[in-house]
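>> received
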Amino acid sequence: MVLKVKPIARWDKNLDGGTNLSIDALTRLATALDADLQATNRAIVARMDSPVALIPQLAAHLVAAGGKRLRPLLTLASARLCGYEGARHVQLAACVEFIHTATLLHDDVVDESVLRRGLASANAVFGNKASVLVGDFLFARAFQLMVADGSLDVLRILSTAAATIAEGEVLQLTTQNDLGTTEQRYFDVIRGKTAALFAAACEVGGVIAGRPEQECAALAAYGQNLGMAFQLVDDALDYAADAAELGKTIGDDFREGKLTYPVLLAIAEGSGEETAFWTRTVGEGEQAEQDLGTALEFIARHDTINRTIARAQAFAESAIDSLKIFPPSAMRDTLQDVARTTTARRF
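>> returned
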């Protein structure tokens, strides 16, 4: 059983009466920043090079897996929104992507994942040891780029984000299989493991443009709220999306005992057989083949997918509001559209 959720209508509508925003917003952003994005891709490829053959081999595998480059796009877009006309944003966008990719490599090892974006994960192809070590290499490259930029503010923002991501991942590990996890604890996890890098990616764009502290804070708020919405939708997708579109097997979070928002809501409102079920399958990790179907039934019973999406939409609205400090422009409109359509992706 795979749940299908129709996005709330106003999030599925387009702004110009033509194409679907869930495709258009990121496409328009990438198109508007095409020269910057191509320069960033070149910087990424150049910095992934190494005389140690395994490093570029594994890096090539990651590049082949694709990805929207959303986080580096946010750095490029934030800089341009603030009127920046130099070249520092390209190297910092590459830095952001390295931090993100390093965390993905480490996450796949921790989660024992076999797929990443529909293809075999790096750890499945090259092994856990290589994935961890290349992840370390990419973190080191990211810090080299921070140092080369020369700004202590940039170094503070991105290094703090890297530490916060690690804290978020460790916090998630401590909440795994813990049915006593609170909603606040869950939000602490995703604020650390996902939203922190979104926030930093946006904030550094304003910093290098020399914008006032209030504007840089607004960019950080946009990124953090967008990241929270993004992760909530990801958690919903694990129980509601088509497996082929998602690029992984439905129910991975369930099998790993992760207390994500749809499950937390179901646990909070369940009783009797439901409580016993969640205790056995998530709390104690004792699962049978048919248990995922039962989990999906309980999630549907309490409508927790749509409620998760509604919570994501509230964060997206906050992200949109954060950018109102900036004067109207095509870049501001596109960034707001990216937030609007986050909750419509891949449903």
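>> Residues 1-22 have pLDDT under 50 and may be disordered.
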